[in-house]
Design goal:
The complex is a heterodimer of chains A (68) and B (170). With 68 residues, chain A is an all-alpha fold. Chain A has three helices and no strands. Chain A has helices at 9-27, 33-52, 56-61. Chain B is of the alpha+beta class. The longest helix of chain B is centred in the C-terminal third of the chain and has 20 residues, at 109-128. At the A-B interface, helix 1 and helix 2 of A face helix 4 and helix 5 of B.
């Protein structure tokens, strides 16, 4: 299955930074307890979508930040 | 500048930029000629001498020789600067011939930079925070995804698997 990228470069960079930040907050011990674990797990989502360049939610909503 | 589209058959085209003074080209030129012969009719080869086509070289933004560029349906889908071995050339031609117009999936330079940057950040967190050691492992996976196409072990393993899965040619 070919994945069609639907994220612009700025979108991908923001997602990767946000994902890494959430991972650090969650698993890095900055936020403790269940909230920290939740933040860490949630952090994988923007990280993965930013690395791949494809957002399933964008696809469902038929939007794309990628030009052309 | 001419567009690299085969007007008659729309088959994939490989453009090979070389130069007489380029030592790796002396090894690669006969190898690419042999490979092109094997895939004659499936993949077209266009050879460009860098010294005789300076305008074209500039237009293509060629950074060094040898360079191999694959075009599918007139669009660039793969580019590599540096010598390729005959087995790597065969793999490229085979992929081009069998891809039926689908671009070869390979990370772009920007993709590589993003993945390597993310891997470094994850590695830093994984190393400095003991309870987040698994992020260092994830960093390894993310970092590998940036360069997997250049890994000889990965190529050998995937080539082996593809050969096993490919139906026997009669």
């Amino acid at each position: 299955m070919k994945i069609t990228m639907n994220e612009a470069m700025w979108d991908r960079v923001v997602r990767i930074i946000l994902g890494i930040a959430l991972l650090y907050l969650g698993f890095g011990g900055v936020v403790s307890g269940w909230l920290g674990t939740a933040l860490g797990i949630i952090g994988f989502v923007p990280l993965l979508t930013g690395l791949v360049g494809y957002c399933p939610l964008y696809s469902l909503l038929r939007i794309s930040t990628k030009q052309g | 500048m001419e567009t690299f589209v085969n007007q008659t058959t729309n088959q994939p085209m490989i453009v090979y930029i070389w130069a007489t003074w380029c030592l790796p080209c002396r090894t690669m030129s006969p190898a690419i000629a042999r490979t092109a012969e094997k895939f004659s009719g499936q993949v077209e080869l266009r050879k460009i001498n860098a010294d005789e086509h300076i305008e074209e070289i500039n237009a293509l933004k060629i950074m060094g020789v040898p360079t191999v560029i694959l075009y599918q349906h007139g669009k660039e889908t793969y580019r590599r600067t540096g010598a390729l071995s005959e087995s790597e050339l065969e793999s490229l031609f085979a992929q081009a011939a069998s891809s039926q117009g689908k671009p070869i999936s390979e990370p772009t330079q920007t993709d590589r930079a993003l993945r390597l940057g993310a891997a470094l950040a994850l590695l830093a967190i994984g190393i400095t925070v003991p309870q987040a050691w698994f992020l260092a492992l994830i960093a390894g996976v993310v970092g590998f995804s940036a360069v997997y196409d250049r890994c000889p072990i990965y190529k050998a393993v995937t080539s082996f698997i593809k050969d096993k899965l490919r139906p026997a040619v009669k």
